[in-house]
Amino acid sequence: MTDSPSSQSKHRLAPRQQAVFARALIGVVAVLLTVLVQWGPSFGLSHLDNISFGSETLRDQFIRWRATTDVEPRILVVDIDEASLAAEGAWPWSSSRIADLVEILLSRYEARGVALDIVREKAGDPEGDMRLAALSTHGPLVLGQAFDFDYEQRRPEPLRQGVPAGALPQPAPQARTADGYIANHAGFAGARHVGNIGFVPDRDGVLRHVPLLTRFGGRDYPALGLALLDCCSGARAPALPDAAHMRIPFKRDWEAFTIASATDILNESIDPASARGRLVLVGSSSLGLGDRVTTPHAAKRPGLGVQAEILSALLDRQAGSTPAPWPGRLIACAFALLSALLATLAFPRLPAWASVALLGLVSALWLRAAYEIAPHDPLFSTTAPLLSNLFLLAVAVPYQWQLAQRRSRRLLGTLQQYVAPSVVRELLRSDLEDPLAPRQLDVTTLIADMEGYTTQVESLSMEESARLTREFLDCLTGPVIAGGGTLDKYTGDGLVAFWGAPLPIEQHADRALDAARTIVERVEALSLVREAQGHPPLRVRIGIESGPAVAGDFGTSFRSIYTAVGDSVNTASRLEQAARDFPYDVIVGAGTVERALRHGFIALGERRLRGKGKATALFTPSDIPRSRSAAPDMTEVAAMAAVKGSS
User: Fold this and answer.
1) What confidence score (pLDDT) does residue 458 get?
2) Range of weakest confidence among 16-30, 180-194, 329-343
């Protein structure tokens, strides 16, 4: 048994419901895109890597904008630069030279501690090795060692040089696993503090993250900066929620750190106060030594500068001066939800260009928000809401444009002959499912007609009669359309128009009165031209009334018309007929007088109109002059007196 056509229609969504459902679905998909990008890596969605790198690129730009040139007062960088190599000899330096440098920094310059961004995988001169071993075992010296994290390109043989040292006494909850190392030779195996200087750039070659703790052979080893902090800072080490994958904040570039040439330290040619109480990093920026990396600031930055950045960030954590954590992922999802809601609610009421402009504005606001959030959340994707907006641009805007075009064609086919263009535009922007469906509205109806039309045309040829009719109707129609009115129909030598439908408008009574005044002026101008040609004068009679009426598309399956019906419409017709008894071209009912805000009126008394059970108060606008062609004779004056006396 199959459903009847009527029962099937009940199961189908109406066009308006279909559009609402489609817009809601588009919005949900847009929000889900942000959710997937924010938490995709956690779900194992590796195909989102390209989007993630787009987010990293945007973060890099934020870092460059936010970078400060303020000097870091807690750190001294001792650089074995080109001048040092030229003065003290080519690399590698002897262990004794390195020991001299460390001892001068600790004794003469009173540094709190020294860390070497250097690995001594081969034994040097025995005396120098003994001095460095003693300093690393009993003094504030941290040696360096480099762990290898080469997971994607496995070497035929894992790196195994030297002897790892400085392991933590207990395993940490988080640590990044290494598969090789380059460590110091066995003479430094007893060193208490040794830090990892190895790292792996992201796939685009930019270094953004470092492991603070590295796991190898079941033991955990700290990064160089963390080992120096633990050894020599004199304060408790900071908590490490991201020990396996810390994002380097890069608050300062290389030039913002206090840098001293190693040869100046060896010669003791700088002010001792420049290093007193500081933590010192010793390494090389020499191009010849090849310790260069790409950072968010620029390419080919000294690796020693990265170690300084890490140490500075750890000192900030230790001091509790890092930015407070914010839920960046949740904020991004909330922003995507806001964009989706705006698209769902605003796009149906906006033209396509305005929808695109709105998305651009929302995207700009998100960029500003992401700039503020980035220092507070190292994990959230800065580009995810932009991806949602791009989806809305590619799907929601064209979909809404398609709906608008379909609706425009349907409406224009019905309205373009008798509704002002401004009203059509408002209808197209409205969210009404069927703006032409009959509904009750408060309207003002204007009915105009030529007095003595038969007398005017009886002596004219057919062509002249047609020209007169056309010119007279032009005088009536132009002000109606210009004033935002709806042309109901022509009545031979007159018309019916109304304001307040198909869309409600403010001050519809005043608009109708404005149109009536313009009509009278234009008919008067046409009459003067015709009088100069020897024709009799023209007069227009206008009736206006305001009140409730049912306006909509009425008719049959063969033909329909958009019109308004109701008592106020009938009253306007009777008022137009009553104008023949007055020296005024425009007769207005009480409903219009009550609603008009910008016009004054002259009371004309009461009259029982045809079809009315009781007398109706009549008025004329005080700002529309008496008609020249309707100057009252004595009979008219007596009639007016009788009307006033009865009132």
Assistant:
1) 86
2) 16-30
Long-range contacts of 357-365 (CB under 8 A, 24+ apart): 359/389, 359/392, 359/393, 359/397, 362/338, 362/389, 363/389
CA dihedral 80, 83, 84, 88 (to 10 degrees): 150
User: What does residue 285 show for φ and ψ, rounded to 5 degrees?
Assistant: -105, 5
Angle among Cα 640, 604, 485 to the nearest 5 degrees reads 130
What gap in Å lies between CA 175 and CA 98, rounded to an integer? 31
CB crowding 92-121: b at 16 or more within 10 Å, else e: ebebbbbbbbbbbbbeebebbbbbbbbbbe
pLDDT in tens, 385-408: 999 999 999 988 888 777 776 766
Integer Cα distance of 266 and 134 in angstroms:
20
Q: Is the pLDDT of residue 245 over 60?
A: yes
* CA atoms of 394 and 581, how far apart (whole Å): 65
- DSSP SS3 for 337: helix
Distances (CA, A) of 319 to 224, 239, 278, 516: 19, 11, 15, 79
pTM score of the predicted model: 0.63
Say which residues have a Cβ less than 8 Å from residue 245's Cβ, sequence separation at least 6. Answer: 176, 209, 211
∠ Cα 212 215 220 (to 5°): 75
User: 428: pLDDT confidence band, cut at 50, 70 and 90?
Assistant: low
Interacting residues of 606 by C-beta distance below 8 A, sequence separation 6+: 615, 616, 617, 618, 643, 646, 647
Residue with tokens 């990396």: 293
Three-class SS string for 414-481?
A: HHCCCECHHHHHHHHHCCCCCCCCCEEEEEEEEEEEECCHHHHHCCCCHHHHHHHHHHHHHHHHHHHH
In the block, residue with structure tokens 């929000």: 31
Residue 250 has φ and ψ, to the nearest 5°, of: 50, 50
pLDDT tens-digit series, residues 28-70: 999 999 998 888 655 544 445 555 667 888 899 999 999 988 8
DSSP 113: E
Reading the block at residue 510, the tokens are: 């005043």
**What is the per-residue DSSP string for 183-204?**
---GGGTT-S-EEE------TT
Distance CA 380, CA 373 (A): 9
DSSP 492: S
Question: Which amino acid would we find at residue 636?
Answer: E
Q: Which of 352, 339, 351 is nearest to 386 (CA)?
A: 339
Residue 533 DSSP label = T
CB 137 within 8 A of CB 192: yes
287 versus 110: the higher-pLDDT residue is 110
In angstroms, rounded to a whole number, what is the distance separating the alpha carbons of residues 376 and 431? 41
Cα dihedral 626→627→628→633 (10° resolution): -80
Amino acid at 589: G
Q: How many residues belong to the chain?
A: 647
pLDDT higher than threshold 70 for residue 154: no
Joined tokens for residue 239: 């908590």
> Do the Cβ atoms of 574 and 610 come closer than 8 Å?
yes
> Tokens at residue 42, please?
């956690």
